Amino acid sequence: MVGPCDACGRLTELFQLPGRKDSNCPECNTDIATLVLLYGGLTIAQRGAESAAELEATLVLVLHRFLGRLEVASCRNSSARVWGCLAVSRKLDLVN
Questions:
Q1: Cβ-count burial 4-15 (b if 16+ within 10 Å, e if not)
Q2: β-sheet bridge partners, residue 12
Q3: Could you tell me the pLDDT band of residue 26, with boundaries at 50, 70 and 90?
Q4: Which of 85, 58, 61 minimizes the C-alpha distance to 71?
Q5: Which of the residues 33, 59, 73, 93 could staple to 38 if both were Cys, CB 3.0 to 4.6 A apart?
Q6: pTM for the model
Q7: Gap between the Cα atoms of 5 and 17, Å rounded
């Protein structure tokens, strides 16, 4: 099925994760699935363990990527100032 991604709004082929009602692009679906798994792993891991620190770092990395995609999409889809959106896009290019 093709339509707008429920997360970022991009018009593309859409997919649904099992147990979820939203339909998202492959990139958003990947990030959402990864975040769900990482969060589940963090709830099991003990806070002081080295593996928990690695899970937290990965979770933050994926979350930043996902939120960055949403921020760029909101720039494309709203009446936000053009220069502000360009700055966000350039910042994300540097991070990725």
A1: bbbbbbbebebb
A2: 3
A3: very high
A4: 85
A5: 59
A6: 0.65
A7: 13
